[in-house]
Structure formats: structure tokens, C-alpha cells
């Protein structure tokens, strides 16, 4: 008896299985329900071939065992048209069915696709989705509600039966946003913005998590998602507004620092440009946003002045001046101005003894000159006086 119990001890962990809730297969939102249906339908289609194969494996092992002298023995058999048809046709039909099911489901459940219904019986009609901006931090989640002007950390609340449009980004590494009971998983990446649409059809408290490993504090990167009725959501927003905390750029930079198992917190006011700055990686003061940088690149860049602007400067304590670039006198770009401002500046500048300098930006051989390029404040006589020492900020 003791030997039997020892052999069956490996089954003990199975006793814990009933305590696990199959969240994916018991969803609380229409998108998650349709995803669950897709999983079940795909599994049933695959079982059409898997179950017969497993059953026939056992049957053949028993039917053609060595001790069964009644089984037929045909060592010269090598082909059966009927058997070949069954072996190839049925799996092929299943693959075609799975492909069609997956193709339709992939397009209908595209995370970027706005919802076309609240549930199976209720169309979206004219219901506007709730906007929620999500930032994956190390190691916590930040939720910004631009319409309500509030924000929260590691706690999210949305109304029941109202579409929700998440816009997501990350601060340092790629992460994955996942509320199994509501919708599918979507990645959040630094310098990029992704979108996820979902809805809750049942009130309750649900688990949200990061489903992509992101470092030391990954295991604590979880949050509670509350699905509330209209009055409950308004009360939740009022509680956040009563917190008195303000999430501005300075407070965000403190929040951005890596921390683990952060308790939920709320902010009554949020900088309206904060999420855009997080996406463009320019929350810090004096840092150029990626959108501005890409706009400059699209117009041909800053050309020769841009090269001189990022050049290494001489030490202030050492003799000499800034290192010349391509024979130019040392200068630094101190600002970017419009074409009109550039023309006014050049018109009011004192005449120079030297020949006028070509101000067109650098461009590759054979490329057309960029149109509408930003003008640059380039007069060496004015900018040489403000050249900072080596190592100082050289903002464009």
C-alpha cells in the first residue's frame, strides 16, 4: 500500500487544479468571449483528427499484437487508394477550415479595429469609447484618463458596457498589456504607440498583468481592473480628483524610476501633454521630441550647422577655442527659427568683410533641395560669445 501511494504521489499537484479559475475560457467582455470561442472552435476542429489517431494507435497496438494469431498478415502490402484518400483529405480539410477560421477571427479581433458591438445582442451605435492612455513603467502601470483629467498607478476603472480604447507605450523596454477577462494581449514599446479596444459586460474586479518578462520586478507588475456601473465610475473619478496629487513632468520623472510592488495611487490633475511627451521621449526639460527630430529629418536635416552644433568643444580651462569643423569658425546653433525670422535677422545684421556664407543644408548627390527647410540662427559673430565649455549641454 505504501509503495502504491509513493508511486501515485506525483499526482498530488493535480489536487490544486480545481482552485485555478480558467479566466480565458470564462471571459467578462465581448472581445474576450469571441477569442474564447475561437480557441474552442479551433480545438474541436483539431480533435477531429487527433482523437481518431490516438484511438487507432491503441487499436492497432492491440489488434496486431504478437500473440493475436487471428490478425491478418500481409508483408507485401504497399498501397491503398482509399487509405491514402482518408489520410490526406481529412487533414487537408481541417487545415483549410482552421485557416479560414483564423483569417476571419484575426481581422474581426484586430486590436486596432474599433468595436462593432457591445455584446452579441447590442451594437455599438453612437457610444463613444472611453480613452485610456497606458504607460508601462519599471515595474508598474500608469493609467491616464485624458477626458476626466485624472490618472492612477496599478489600478484601472472603466464603465460596464462602454467601449474602451487603450493607447499604450513604454518607457524603457518592451512589455505586454493583458487583461484576460476583457480583451487580448497587446505589446507596449518605447518610442511607439499601440492600440487596443475592449469592453467589460459584467461588473467586477479583474486581474491585469504584464505578460512579457521585463526585468527584476516583473512578478509584481500586476494591477486590478474594476468594471463599474456609470455611478460607480463617476465616484471612482471623484475619489481620484480628491487625492490632490498632480502628475506633471517632474512628478512623472520621479515615478519613472524603477520600483517594485508599488501600491495603487491616484492623481487629481495630469499634464495634458504628458503621454505625448512619453511617446516622443522628451519628458525631460530641454530634450528634443522625436516628432520634432523626425520633422527636421523629413525636411533634409540641419545640414552643416547641425554638424558643427554637436561637435566636441574645447575645455574652458585649456587654451584655444572650439574645434573648427570643415574650416568654419567655431560656433554653436543656439536656436531654430522660421524662414521669415532668418531673413529679418540677416537684414539687420552688420555687413561682413567676408563673402556671404552658403546657408543651404547639406544634401546627397542627386537629391533635390528640401522644400520649406527651417531657418537657422548661424551668425558666427553672435554665437561665438556663448560657446559653452566641453561637456555642457548643446541643445538644438
UniProtKB/TrEMBL annotation:
Residue ranges of every copy of the Cytochrome oxidase subunit II copper A binding domain listed in the record: 127-239
Keyword check for Lipoprotein: yes
Gene Ontology molecular function terms on file: copper ion binding; cytochrome bo3 ubiquinol oxidase activity; cytochrome-c oxidase activity; oxidoreductase activity, acting on diphenols and related substances as donors, oxygen as acceptor
Top-level taxon of origin: Bacteria
Family to which the UniProt record says this protein belongs: Belongs to the cytochrome c oxidase subunit 2 family.
Lipid bilayer topology: Multi-pass membrane protein
Official protein name in the record: Ubiquinol oxidase polypeptide II
GO biological process, one term: ATP synthesis coupled electron transport
Pfam families hit by this protein: COX2 (PF00116), COX_ARM (PF06481)
UniProt-listed NCBIfam families: CyoA (TIGR01433)
Keywords: Cell membrane, Electron transport, Lipoprotein, Membrane, Oxidoreductase, Palmitate, Respiratory chain, Signal, Transmembrane, Transmembrane helix, Transport
